[in-house]
Structures are given as C-alpha cells and as structure tokens.
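FOLDING PROBLEM:
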Amino acid sequence: MCHVIVTCRSMLWTLLSIVVAFAELIAFMSADWLIGRAKPSGSEEADNRTGGQQEPYRPTLGIYGRCTRISHVQFSRRDTLCGPYAENFSEIASGFWQATAIFLAMGIMILCTVAFVSVFTMCVQSIMKKSIFNVCGLLQGIAGLFLILGLILYPAGWGCQKAISYCGPYASAYKLGDCSLGWAFYTAIGGTVLTFICAVFSAQAEIATSSDKVQEEIEEGKNLICLL
C-alpha cells in the first residue's frame, strides 16, 4: 500500500532540488555570463533622429550564445538580438568552454533527474531497500562536482578570440579585461552551492520520513501522513 508521507524537511528538500535544477538550467542557457565593454549605441544619423546622443550599451556573451544591439535606423529604434553564435558544438569559441558545456550539461541532467524523482518521494521512499533520499543526495553531490569542474574551466577560456572581441586585448585566461561577470555566472555559482546543501539536506529528509512518529501513523492505518 502506498503511503503519502509529507514532512517539512522532505518538502523543503524537494522544493530546493527543483529550484536548483531550474537555476542551473537557466544560467547555462543564458548569454549573460560576460558583460562586454561599452560600445556606441549606433550611427550619428540615428542619434539625430531620436533627438540626442544615445547611451552606449554593453553586449553580453555566454558559453554558446550572445546578445547584441542592432540599430534600425528607418524606425528610429534599437533592438537587442540574442541567440547562439555557435551553430554546433565544435563552433563554441574555446575548448575550455566546450569542456565547461559538457560538465555543466552533465550536472544539470543529473539535477533535473533528481528534481523529477524528488516529486515522487512523497509516495515512494525506497527502491530495492535503498533510500531514495540517500541515492538522490549522492547524485546531487556528483552533480555538484561536475558543476565545479565546469565553473573552474570557464575562466580559462577568457583568452579566446571571441572573448577578446568583447572584453578587449587585455583579456586572457582568468583575466576579464574590460568585461565584467554577468548574473548567469553568479547564478551558476549559487546553484552549485545549493546543490551541495541539497545533498546534505537529503539525509535530513530521509530521517524525517522514517521517524518513529511516521511509523506510528502508518501502524494506525493512515495513508496520508503530514508532519511538521
């Protein structure tokens, strides 16, 4: 018989697992890893039509994508165009960024799998006498190691020609030049820290769902068990 067991610790672990997976996925897909040096907003003619000098903008560069602004003189407006600069994996600007993409993708795949499984831990707490919480915690720890490797390798690619075109001639491995780090990089770091927190917290979720109080509720014949 299936017993639905919900505790504060197990629910918190499930929510954190889902948040971490989405945070890492969004960061990976974003083009806001590097914020490039300021560039002029457009042509002098466009500035005259819009009634003055436009503020310079800063294009952004991701692992495989980029965002830049295109001037539409005929409409007197400017749009930001975002999309992948690499049509395939081999066109990613740096070998280090290719390795980063591989490690991050592996970590994110594990995190998404754990996030999916975590939803069902309310009904199923073990498989083949193995605690799902402990298995998921181990997988989250492995995913965290993949994410760390990817984040360590990423700055080594700042010396590639693509990064130099955005960050200036002084950009090199682990040196930003005229660029600054975007929100996606910080989100990836925060998600990595939370990944290890989830891995540790999975043990608390397992303890909460197998406590004596839960066993007492099961022995009383309850199918839905909610505990603080």
